Amino acid sequence: MNTVANSYVENVHKPLPTVLDQDRGTFAMLLVIFTELFLFISLFFSYFMLENNKHRWSFNNPPKLGYALVMVVVLVTSSFVLHWGEKQVEKESRLAGRIALAATIVIGLVFLTLQSFEYLSHWKTLAPYSDSYGSIFYAITTFHAAHVIVGLLLLSYVLALPRYAPARESPYRPYHVAAMYWHFVDIIWLFVVGILYIGANYHL
Amino acid sequence: MSTATVEQRLQKIWETPKGLWGWFATVDHKEIGVRYLVTAFTFLVIGGVEALIMRLQLARADQALLTPSMYDQLFTMHGVTMILWYASPILSGFANYLIPLMIGSRDMAFPRLNAFSYWSFLLSGVLLYIAPCLGQAPHGGWFAYVPLTNIAYSPGYGMDIYALSIIYLTISTTAGAINFIVTILRLRAPGMTISRMPLFLYSTLTVSTVIVFAMPSLTVACVFLLLDRHWGTHFFHVAGGGYPLLWQALFWFWGHPWVYVIFLPATGMISMIIPVFSRRPIVGYPYVAISTVLTGVVGFSVFVHHMFAVGMSDMAMSFFSAGSMTISIFTAVQVFAWIATVWTGRPVMTTAMHFAMGSVALLVIGGLNGIFTAVIPVDWQVHDTYFVVAHLHYVLIGSNVFPVFAAFYYWIPKITGRLMDEKLGKWSFWVMFIGFNLGFFPMHLAGFAGMPRRVYTYPAGLGLQPLNMLATIGAFILGLGMLMSVVNLIESLRHGRVAGKNPWNADSLEWETDSPPAPYGTVHIPTVASRHPLWDDHEEEYDPDNLRTLDYDRVTLASTWRDAEPYAISKMPMETLAPLLLAIALFIFFTAMVFELLWIALAGVILTFAAGCFWLWPRPRPARLEVSA
Ligand code: HEM
Predict the structure, then answer these.
(1) Disulfide-capable partner of A130 in A134, A173, B74, B554 (CB 3.0 to 4.6 Å)?
(2) What are the domain boundaries of chain A?
């Protein structure tokens, strides 16, 4: 029981490490993503539960795929751009990283614009107060849009950072942490499209 | 040659500046932990007073002390306060104070987030209690079933405040949970491998993980409720194709695991206290640890079984009983471990030990009548009667209040540096124990006799009067017992014996520090060579070359999650007002949403973002860290 498995315990004369801890933020962001994931799982769960009442839903033509698929392309592109940017920052080419970041933000704004067009195209036939389908449809998509906005705010914060961190710290951690969140938001959109659009159109 | 001693340097680096600014800006886990404890205890007192008012009303038949609607508001506020604002935060208070000391770290992993958790916990409670001040407290029971809570049947601000303050609280709780997970997995002292962690860490880790997964569904439920009430959606309206059961599903996906959130850290504390006073290591450490983790895992699967097998009509009822049924195996493992520990040890019956043993006794009783309610005919007989009220209080008070008092008697000397009076403590225990049983046991009988729960009175001549009178007297005796402990604490602050580092001769690392601990904890980062650091031959702080003092900056040691091999230095933040500002910004947002002041709500969002940026913005280290080395 009292055998010592740890070199630091055996050898108290060994100095402590001096590198700075870089993972705390990443770890916390991972947990944030987990809890956000369960937020969306609850939302999808609600969708499926309400779907039990499908015969009473007023919609006969499910949401069109057009906008949604374009929006998939838009978001996936943004993720690739951002990832490329992160690689650049890792290689210490900060300017390229910053440009990629700015581009991602622009693409994110395009996404939100497209989404508002999409809402407009639905609004006449389907509103949140039409029936429970409208409620859950708008709830899920708006929750997602809110996450896109949060993601954009995070990215803009990173863009505004003077040198991505004070001198002795790693240059790219805030970048990395914000990017994790952005990729997560993108992946959620794939699920939204899969369930709300493709699933409804092909009666999966 | 150094001009200051190591202690002086550490003190300078870690102490919170005095004065008003320092008070609001502190990020010291000990300061925050104490605030958590005081605030949560205040909520216990508030909830307790609400309960006593209800008991006064019920003491005799046909009384008119309260109107029916006031009674509804009281039991709802009582339930919500106890479950959400007392039972879990009080455990966070202990965890906050103790965990960094137990793992030999200088602070939590995210000290500012920690401060934010506290402020938002406090402000969400303030938001909740705006409701009774407006005379419109929520009245739909603590689980707020629709359709009763829809706008048509519950006009006014009550339910809005219920939903919004809970959403706010979930933010605080989730932030706290993330902080605990990272702290426990990343900041343990060298050598404190995962198989040597104190059991309290196992339970906190499990509970925090459960919170991360379960909390969001409560948020979603409350958002849906608000949307239904004010924005014309149809999540729960049958007429619009909605589903009232959706509320129950979402609510219990959170609510079921939440029982363990309330229960597990308390068992973790018992598992720390009983071995110390039995003067031996706990029996079956691995089994206790594993059953703690499995309780959390099973918490979710039980929910699934609710959803798909049983249907949900009896959800409210089966909640506590099914909970105690499934965890009964894992709880039994723990209970047997405790009993075996006492049996084979040399028990010292201190007050803390009294409370710990008392809660084990109550758990066994609560568990037994949980089996009762799982028997279908009994279930039908007692459904929504006082039997349920009795049962849930046995479980909750046995698994939370008594362990919390045990923890108070055990750890307060660490926090205040003074021992509490043992004699008064034991009196307090016996008064509480007898009062509790006197107060809640008759409720079982009242339930069998058919007294429904949530009624504001009952007619004379049903034979319910004597039982209720007993219950009321018992409740007041219980309150008196608690009061005795509070008096004891206040007395001890002035006249208590000085505790010294380790008054109980305990085994875990927090007893290595001074009482009360210095702002930095231990001078040398300890090393750990066994499960019982202070009971083995290894010298935790042995560090002749001063290699583990970390006295050059506000930093602590990061180690790997399993073997606790140090691998990096974690920089710790300085005092800042950002967490408080962020919490206030959110408070503005949520309060504005209650009154539907959308522009102010928008301002709240913008303020939140601004406070967030202010928080994260990199700053140079303050000059005061430039200590002469
Ligand atoms: C100080 C001792 C306490 C007394 C005298 C007391 C008394 C009561 C009473 C009279 C009711 C209302 C029963 C009804 O009309 O249906 C009640 C409900 C409840 N109590 Fe307590 N209680 C106490 C402590 C606690 C604690 C410590 C907790 C939780 C940790 C708690 C949780 C609840 C819950 C969840 C309800 C159900 C509320 C509802 O029906 O929505 N109580 N209690």
Answers:
(1) A134
(2) 19-202
Of B519, B497, B490, the residue nearest B41 (C-alpha): B490
Work out the pLDDT band at A167, boundaries 50, 70, 90.
very low
pLDDT digits (tens, 9 = 90+) for A65-109: 888 999 999 999 999 999 999 998 888 788 888 999 999 999 999
Instruction: Dig out the tokens for B335 from the structure.
Output: 């209970």
Q: Which residues have C-beta within 8 Å of that of residue B282, sequence separation ≥ 6?
A: B199, B271, B274, B275, B288, B337, B338, B341
Tokens of A123: 């609004």
Q: How far is CA A100 from each of CA A46, A74, A144, A174, B201, rounded to the nearest angstrom?
A: 37, 14, 23, 15, 42
Q: Give the nearest partner residue to B220 out of A4, A13, A46, using CB atoms.
A: A46
Rounded Cα distance, A31 and A26, in Å? 9
pLDDT at B166 over 90: yes
The answer to whether residue A60 neighbours chain B at the CB level (below 8 Å) is no
Q: Please give all residues whose beta carbon lies within 6 A of any atom in ligand 1, as ranges.
A: B 48, 51, 54-55, 75-76, 78-79, 82-83, 87, 141-142, 389, 393, 396-397, 400-401, 439, 453-454, 475, 478
Rounded Cα distance between B66 and B51, Å, is 13
The yes-or-no verdict on residue B326 having pLDDT over 70 is no
Q: What is the pLDDT of residues B255-277, one digit of tens each?
A: 888 888 988 888 999 999 999 99
From ligand 1's centre to the CA of B594, what distance in Å? Answer: 27
Cα Dmax for chain B: 87
Contact (Cβ atoms closer than 8 angstroms) between residue B271 and residue B334:
yes
For residue A199, name the pLDDT band (cuts at 50, 70, 90): confident
pLDDT digits (tens, 9 = 90+) for B506-561: 999 999 999 999 999 999 999 998 999 999 888 888 888 888 888 888 999 999 99
- Of the candidates B28, B44, B40, the one whose C-alpha atom is nearest the C-alpha of residue B96 is B28
Which residues are CB-neighbours of A120 under 8 A, at least 6 positions away?
Answer: none
Q: Which fold has domain A19-202?
A: Four Helix Bundle (Hemerythrin (Met), subunit A) (1.20.120)
Task: Give residue B226's identity as a one-letter amino acid code.
Answer: L
Residue B306 pLDDT exceeds 60: no
Burial (Cβ within 10 Å: 0-12, 13-18, ≥19) of residue B62: exposed
CB B174 within 8 A of CB B261: no
For residues B527 and B244, what is the distance between their CA atoms, to the nearest angstrom? 55
Residue B544 sits at the vertex; the CA angle it makes with B539 and B547, to the nearest 5 degrees, is 100
| Cα dist from B71 to B54, B392, B443, whole Å | 7, 19, 18
More confident call, B379 vs B292: B292
Measured in Å, residue B131 CA sits from the centre of ligand 1 at: 19
Distance (Å, whole) CA B253 – CA B331: 21
What phi and psi values does residue B86 have, to the nearest 5 degrees? -110, -60
User: What separation in angstroms does the CA of A111 have from each of A145, A189, B271?
Assistant: 9, 11, 53
**Nearest CA to B171 among B225, B226, B122?**
B122
* Chain B residue with Cα closest to A3: B529
Write out residues 85-124 of A within 8 Å (CB-CB) of B.
none
Q: What is the pLDDT of residue B576?
A: 94
**ipTM exceeding 0.95, yes/no:** no
Q: Does B174 touch chain A (CB under 8 A)?
A: yes
pLDDT band at A169 (very low <50, low <70, confident <90, very high): low
Q: How far apart are CA B292 and CA B201, in angstroms?
A: 10
Across chain A, what does the average pLDDT equal? 86
Reduce the DSSP state of residue A50 to 3 states and report it: helix
State which amino acid sits at residue B280: R
What pLDDT sits at residue A171? 54
Read off the pLDDT band of A168 (50, 70, 90): very low
